[in-house]
Amino acid sequence: MKAVILAGGEGKRLRPYTMSVAKPMVPILNKPILEYSINLLRSYGIKDILITTCYKSNTIKEYFGNGSRFHVNITYLEERKPLGTAGGIFLANHLLKEPFLVLSGDAFTNIPIDQVINFHKSKKAAMTLVSKEVPNPREYGICYTNQNRKLIDFVEKPATWEGNEVNTGVYIVEPFLLKKYSRKGALDFSRDLIPSLLTNNEAVYVFKTNAYWRDIGSPEEYKRAREDLMRGLFTPEKAYLARKSETVNLDPFITRVQVACPKVKKPFVLAKLLETVPSMDEEEFIIEHRDGGWTKIVSDPDRGFIIYSKADRRNLARELARYYGKKIKTWQKV
């Protein structure tokens, strides 16, 4: 199966993070969001990936290239002007001759793709949407289904609503739909295609997931995603590892250490950190450890520095946090 990742959006709501990079290139723990998506696809054996690009497309292409560094094959679908979430896919219909997966480039998730594929096949669906319940569905499309999980109504970003099961922007699509509903120009899944499929009573079904999913569409959601990863609430490999073994322990140990630092000394410490760990964000530094885990050093305006260390053993996490705490204290003496 091929996958299409939608990565052409400008990400205006996520500014200033998207001033210089495409929205899917915004980093979480020094890794672009898009890289998490590619790793997820690869973990389920999906290695032929098409990526729609438009805004700041060079930042994506320069980082991922043809995909060989990430053990996948990447084809870019360049849009000269934004074509919506579905327009670029319809233009590339000649490359999509079999059922394919669609994933939003700004989705931070570990959705169990194998379960979605099995559901799609069992329902003999023309299209499958992946849904999830959220506390506030105002910014999403709400899915309404019958007892057989067939989609019977879909309301995009309602002012008032009933229910909180929303569209995650993850789909499996049968290729015949690209011919049957062929259209040139801008086209959106939620506003155009899904309503047309409902009007024609197509076999559209909804797979409801309890997996982690967050739409990184605003600075607030971006911050929450980073915090979730720090706390171990999101594990990129969770679904894949769970399939491999029922005994895998995915709960890491995280130690937090606070280090005081006078404001006059902070520029010297930040300079040392930038020498040690090049970072796009001068207030947050991520150090990945060879044996797994990481240390995150956050510059706090009022409390010096806060250090988080994650490891598979409590003692190791504690040792790593203390080690970097001592380095910060040493740098203050320079």
UniProtKB/TrEMBL annotation:
User: Matching InterPro entries, A to Z?
Assistant: Mannose-1P_guanyltransferase, NTP_transferase_dom, Nucleotide-diphossugar_trans
Outline the extent of the Nucleotidyl transferase domain: 2-229
Q: SUPFAM superfamilies under this entry? A: Nucleotide-diphospho-sugar transferases
Gene3D superfamilies hit by this protein: Spore Coat Polysaccharide Biosynthesis Protein SpsA, Chain A
Q: Name one Pfam family in it.
A: NTP_transferase
Q: Which domain of life is it from?
A: Bacteria
Protein name per UniProt: Sugar phosphate nucleotidyltransferase
